[in-house]
From TrEMBL:
Listed name of the protein: Eukaryotic translation initiation factor 4, gamma 2a
Residue ranges of domain W2 in the record: 237-420
Residue ranges of domain MI in the record: 60-183
GO biological process: regulation of translation
Length: 423
């Protein structure tokens, strides 16, 4: 039996007494401090959930919209008002409703505050918070309310027209965008009121160019009873908008001038003095020029006798017709020379004229031959008219039937001439 002293001697020596090369490999565990850990860490606490933001109701948003507008009209601080709209974070589908609220609230306010509201709407558009489509949606929404609003605000359409005019001038909406929901005299005379307000705030020439670019058919913007040319011109003149259609008056005035003095010198001088230079190459002007002259010839030769017009003309009448066309030649060449597109317009004017008289026998062919022989209309233009498929002008089928054989001859003659030049 070993005693305690002997037991101690028999126990293995501590590792530090063994040479390093003989010590077993051990993985060193670094102290907690080196790991950046506390010896007694605090218990992990879970983050409290973020409170969900309450979605504003439509009524709350409308109340906020009115409040920010009232504040803006008082302070005139546009930046603050735009930021207030941003902070509302209104969903996209609410934006037209917000705009409707802005417009309706300010309709019965003084002109200055209406102007301020328009500035705010412009600012919202500039900042990307509102689109042109939003504006049109809001505009239509206000229109739907007009029957109810008119009881409290009799001039609601006039006030609404002012807002639209400002939006057009600021290029927020186009005339075509505005016209679309107002076609067929819908909410008449709102469209005309809008144009009046634009003309009042900007240059009439600027509005004329903008209106022409819009391609809006004005007859569609009037009630059905006002859609014929003469009545439409009366309505537009009555509202000071006749300047938008300078050519509409021309047809009647030019025919009267022809009756007074049909000499080429007199007619050309009258056109130069009365028709803007930029309209001289307008297809509408060419149409009216040719139409007026054709009507003048009919009036002189047939004296408005419809039965005589439908009957085959005498040789004397055909000679007179040809001579009058010869007299008109200098004026026609002045505006049609080397202009194939305008020469095609002239042929369409002739087509419509013949169609309006139920295509008197031989009339269209006589004019085609004379216009070609007198070098008023060139071969290329006749053939372009034949191939053109535009449906805007009535009577094309009947017209082609009457002159197709002559056009075939013309095409053949032109090809032979071209072959001869090559040889």
């Amino acid at each position: 039996i070993f005693n305690k002293t002997q037991m101690t001697k028999l126990q293995p020596q501590t590792p530090n007494m063994i040479p390093p090369s003989a010590q077993p490999i051990r993985t060193r565990t670094p102290p907690l401090a080196e790991l950046g850990l506390k010896a007694n860490p605090l218990p992990i606490q879970e983050k409290p959930p973020k409170p969900t933001k309450k979605t504003l109701s439509k009524e709350e948003m409308l109340t906020m919209t009115e409040a920010l507008l009232v504040k803006y009209l008082s302070s005139k601080d546009l930046e603050e008002a735009v930021n207030a709209v941003k902070e509302m974070k209104a969903p996209k589908h609410f934006v037209p409703e917000m705009l409707r609220k802005l417009v309706v609230y300010s309709l019965e306010r003084p002109d200055e505050e209406q102007e301020q509201t328009s500035v705010l709407i412009h600012g919202l558009c500039t900042d990307g918070l509102v689109t042109g489509e939003n504006l049109i949606q809001a505009f239509l929404s206000v229109l739907d309310q007009c029957p109810n609003i008119e009881d409290q605000i009799p001039k609601v359409k006039s006030y609404l027209a002012q807002f639209c005019a400002r939006a057009i001038i600021a290029d927020l909406v186009s005339i075509a965008d505005l016209a679309s929901p107002l076609e067929n005299g819908n909410h008449f005379p709102l469209f005309l009121l809008c144009l009046q307000q634009v003309a009042k705030r900007n240059d009439p020439d600027w509005l004329t160019d903008l209106f022409l670019q819009s391609k809006v058919n004005m007859s569609k913007m009037l009630p059905e009873c006002d859609q014929n040319k003469e009545r439409m011109l009366e309505v537009l003149d009555g509202r000071g908008l006749g300047f938008l259609f300078p050519l509409m008056k021309l047809e009647k005035e030019l025919l009267n001038q022809l009756k007074k003095d049909p000499s080429p010198q007199s007619i050309y001088k009258w056109i130069r003095d009365n028709i803007s230079l930029k309209l001289h190459t307008d297809p509408g002007f060419v149409n009216i020029l040719i139409t007026s002259f054709l009507q003048f010839i009919d009036c002189k030769i047939f004296a408005d006798d419809e039965e005589e017009q439908l009957a085959a003309p005498t040789k004397e009448q055909m000679d007179q017709e040809k001579q009058m066309l010869q007299d008109f030649k200098p004026v026609a060449q002045k505006f049609l020379h080397d202009q194939v597109d305008l020469q095609v317009c002239a042929l369409y004017a002739l087509q419509v004229h013949c169609n309006s008289k139920a295509f008197p026998k031989g009339m269209l062919l006589r004019y085609f031959v004379n216009l070609y022989d007198m070098e008023i209309i060139e071969e290329e233009s006749f053939l372009a008219w034949r191939e053109d498929i535009v449906q805007e002008f009535p009577g094309k089928g009947k017209a082609l039937f009457q002159v197709n054989q002559w056009l075939t001859w013309l095409e053949t003659a032109e090809e032979e001439e071209s072959d001869g030049e090559e040889d």
